[in-house]
Design brief:
Layout: H1 2-12, H2 21-33, H3 36-46, H4 51-62, E1 66-69, E2 80-84, H5 90-100, E3 108-111, H6 114-118, E4 126-128, H7 138-153, E5 157-160, E6 168-170, E7 173-175, H8 182-190, E8 194-200, H9 205-213, H10 215-219, H11 224-227, E9 234-238, H12 251-263, E10 275-277, H13 289-306
Parallel strand pairs: 1-9, 2-5, 2-8, 3-4, 3-5
Antiparallel strand pairs: 6-7, 7-10, 8-9
Helix pairs in contact: 4-5
């Protein structure tokens, strides 16, 4: 289990595994900061569990502060496809599973196959998708389509995050990334009603601090940012189903329509403009923040340089 988790981390930050004393010191510090041992212990505990038990355990752990509206729009049976924004990462799927588990225990998720490298037994609820175009192959696409067809034939409810990645930070706001047209393809091919879902949530301040410094630091918070969500408030808004035949003919227009319908759920003003504030509970002038963040980044860079890390090599 440790080897699999380390492999995922190394793929995201190869420099962190360099065989140099100061790098080892940095890795030890980051492992402590990101609760690496606690994450590993939990993974070992669940490594032989079936997927439903894993999701129940994670749901009970994380879904502490969740509000939901529109659950009545979820059909009690029959195939359908949820499209959702993706503000935080893995936790978004866990929260949705927790909300849907009683009404639709047959729910499955389109997700990156990395989770199957750690928990292969999750394949009964994970339709592996390769979001990165440079790694996409015809074989992978056929496999995803075959999984989807079987799930539809079994009358299951699917969940897809069309952005493929969690929301991007720009300054002090989160922006939902551009959506890929996969949901439109699935909906039309299998005549699936599409249910828009909007999740309002954010990651920790540490995540966005790491994002300011370098993407590799941000990416290695993958597990930490999942397990700390018991402190985060999630608001989930579920919209009315949209029939496949109601979608515009052109795929790009269809996915744009779904994008805007999803992000408009319960949103007002700038929230309808695909953004979420990172610091909505801070009560000081936002005009000061560019200076504050600049100073913060300078201090982080200075700290890394003091321990001998070549910052330029990470940029």
């Amino acid at each position: 289990m440790k080897e699999q988790i380390n492999a995922l981390i190394e793929e995201r930050a190869k420099w962190l595994f360099a065989n140099r004393p100061y790098i080892r010191a940095i890795r030890l510090f980051i492992n402590t900061l990101l609760s690496y041992n606690a994450t590993l212990d939990l993974a070992i505990e669940m490594q032989d569990w079936p997927s439903d038990k894993i999701m129940d355990r994670m749901g009970r752990l994380l879904a502490q502060r969740v509000n939901c509206t529109g659950l009545e729009h979820i059909p009690v049976s029959g195939p359908a496809l949820i499209v959702s924004n993706h503000p935080t990462g893995i936790a978004d799927g866990i929260i949705l599973h927790r909300l849907l588990a009683t009404k639709r225990p047959d729910t499955y998720f389109f997700a990156n196959s990395d989770i199957l490298r750690i928990m292969p037994q999750m394949e009964d609820i994970i339709a592996a998708v390769e979001w990165r175009t440079d790694r996409r192959t015809h074989a992978k696409t056929r496999s995803t389509m075959a999984y989807t067809k079987q799930a539809v034939d079994e009358g299951r409810l699917g969940v897809i995050f069309p952005s493929g990645r969690l929301a991007k930070r720009r300054g002090l706001r989160l922006y939902e990334r551009q959506w890929m047209p996969s949901p439109v393809t699935f909906a039309r091919k299998f005549d699936l009603p599409i249910i828009p879902v909007r999740i309002e949530a954010r990651n920790s301040a540490l995540f966005y601090l790491f994002d300011w410094v370098h993407p590799s630091l941000r990416d290695i918070t993958l597990f930490h940012e999942t397990l700390n969500k018991y402190r985060q408030h999630f608001c989930v808004h579920i919209g009315k189903p949209i029939a496949a035949k109601e979608l515009p003919i052109k795929p790009e227009e269809a996915i744009t329509m779904l994008y805007h319908k999803t992000l408009a759920l319960k949103g007002t003003g700038r929230e309808q403009d695909k953004t979420v504030p990172l610091l909505s509970k801070w009560h000081f002038s936002l005009a000061r923040l560019p200076h504050i963040t600049k100073v913060l980044r300078q201090r982080v860079y200075a700290g890394l340089q003091k321990v001998g890390l070549k910052v330029k090599s990470l940029m």
